[in-house]
Amino acid sequence: MSNAKSVHVAMVDPTATPRQSGDEPGADVAAYLARHGIDVTVDALPSAGRSVAQVLQRHANDVAADMIVMGAYGHSRCASSYSVASPDRCSMKLGYPC
Q: Do residues 96 and 68 touch, judged by C-beta distance below 8 A?
C-alpha cells in the first residue's frame, strides 16, 4: 500500500459502536495507515438496498481504483481476523484484482 497514490478505506453501512469500532468507524485504520505515510481517505457508503459487492464496485469505479483489498474485522479484538470466504466471493463478483 505504501506505493499507492492514495488509499480509500470503504465501509458499507458502518455503525459507530464505542466498544467495537469507536465513535468514528474507520478512524483507527486510517490513523495507522497515515502514520506509515499513506494518503488515506475514509469513505462511509450507504447500501441503499444494493449488495455490498454492488456498492463497492460503484465506489471503485468512482474513485478510479486499480485494486480492491478486502478484510473483515471480528466482534472483539480477541476475535479479530481477516475473513477469507466472504471477501473472496465478493471480489470475484467485482472483477477487480485482489
A: yes
Joined grid coordinates for residue 46: 450507504
d(CA 83, CA 87): 7
Residue 33: Cβ within 10 Å count = 18
pLDDT in tens, 2-16: 788 889 999 998 887
Cα radius of gyration rounded to whole Å, the chain: 13
Q: What element of type H or E holds 45?
A: strand 40-45
pLDDT in tens, 33-86: 999 999 999 999 999 999 888 898 899 999 998 888 877 654 444 444 433 334
Burial 7-30 (b: 16+ CB within 10 A, else e): bbbbbbebeeeeeebeeebbeebb
Beta bridge pairs of residue 45: 12
Using DSSP's 3-state secondary structure scheme, residue 64 falls into: coil
